[in-house]
């Protein structure tokens, strides 16, 4: 189990390399939701997403422990950028396996950080094989996107800051985060358990990549019955590690459709005047879909990232 001490250590370790992002509110969205919403704006984070936290925490430890001379990972985009950014900070080469269908803006950003992009077919099997090939050729150390305690501890620091900024006198009733591989959700659930046990943690997932909700119910890692969603950052399945944490500390996983995700994304753009990507809008879509469930609550929402392809907006 990832301890509170390990999350605090991760926060201390990464602090020079990340932003402490703001928590924003919006009167119009509060009215729409019938609840008080507090948005943790990781779209303002280094590399434009919360993934910087876990990537930096893991890569710094790889470098400090002299585990290898290069880094590799597979990712559809934000973790790829996080690892590329972190590797540059420690002066290590990075080899990033990315599906050919990943947004061009994310591929370009990875290259801008100095990493080499290796494209593959858009399947988990192809991504994992690409990483195995890189390791065989270069001896690089894998920093997994979510199945890594150091990554999960780093991701937990986003909710840690949110809980600290809200305070414990009137704690959050619920924190919502999207779920793909479960690294952010696992970290969020753990830090809420340690610092604000009264706070429930609920996940949002696209209907077009609904594997986590099946895994949550069955107790074993499941695959989505079909994959077709605009939320490109949430396409991966859980791991045994993340599923174990999620089943222990997460209250529920709720799904939303692509039209609901797009409507929530547009609301954030129009009303909050900030850029978010589709995956980021999933938790707000969940709240708007289930007003009775969240009515009158004090709710934290982790806005996970803003790396949207501006040439392919859904509105």
From TrEMBL:
Tryptophan synthase beta chain-like PALP domain segment(s): 14-305
GO MF, one annotated term: serine racemase activity
This protein's UniProt keywords: Lyase, Pyridoxal phosphate
Pfam families membership: PALP
Domain of life per record: Bacteria
Gene3D superfamilies xrefs: 3.40.50.1100
Entry-linked InterPro entries: ACCD_DCysDesulf (IPR027278), TrpB-like_PALP (IPR001926), TrpB-like_PALP_sf (IPR036052)
Transmembrane listed as a keyword: no
One GO BP: D-serine biosynthetic process
Swiss-Prot/TrEMBL cofactor(s): pyridoxal 5'-phosphate
Family recorded in the similarity comment: Belongs to the serine/threonine dehydratase family. Belongs to the ACC deaminase/D-cysteine desulfhydrase family.
UniProt protein name: Serine dehydratase
Natural source organism: Spirosoma montaniterrae
């Amino acid at each position: 189990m990832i301890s509170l001490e390990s999350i605090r250590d991760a926060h201390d370790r990464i602090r020079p390399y990340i932003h402490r992002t703001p928590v924003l509110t919006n009167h119009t969205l509060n009215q729409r939701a019938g609840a008080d919403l507090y948005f943790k704006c990781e779209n303002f984070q280094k590399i434009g997403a919360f993934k910087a936290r876990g990537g930096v925490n893991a890569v710094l430890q790889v470098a400090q422990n002299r585990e290898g001379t290069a880094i590799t990972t597979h990712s559809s985009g934000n973790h790829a950028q996080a690892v590329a950014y972190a590797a540059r900070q420690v002066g290590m080469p990075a080899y990033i396996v990315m599906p050919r269908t990943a947004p061009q803006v994310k591929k370009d950003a990875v290259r801008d950080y100095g990493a080499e992009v290796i494209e593959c077919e858009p399947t988990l099997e192809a991504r994992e094989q690409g990483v195995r090939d890189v390791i065989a050729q270069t001896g690089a150390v894998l920093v997994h996107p979510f199945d890594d305690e150091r990554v999960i501890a780093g991701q937990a620091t986003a909710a840690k800051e949110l809980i600290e900024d809200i305070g414990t006198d009137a704690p959050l009733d619920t924190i919502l985060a999207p779920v793909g591989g479960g690294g952010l959700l696992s970290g969020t659930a753990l830090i809420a358990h340690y610092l604000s046990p009264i706070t429930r943690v609920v996940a949002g997932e696209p209907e077009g990549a609904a594997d986590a909700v099946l895994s949550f119910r069955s107790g074993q890692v499941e695959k989505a019955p079909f994959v077709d969603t605009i939320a490109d950052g949430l396409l991966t399945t859980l791991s045994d590690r993340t599923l174990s944490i999620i089943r222990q500390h997460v209250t529920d996983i709720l799904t939303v459709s692509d039209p609901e995700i797009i409507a929530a994304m547009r609301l954030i753009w129009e009303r909050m005047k900030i850029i978010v990507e589709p995956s980021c809008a999933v938790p707000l879509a969940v709240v708007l879909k289930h007003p009775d469930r969240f009515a009158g609550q004090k709710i934290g929402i982790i806005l996970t990232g803003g790396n949207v392809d501006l040439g392919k907006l859904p509105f």
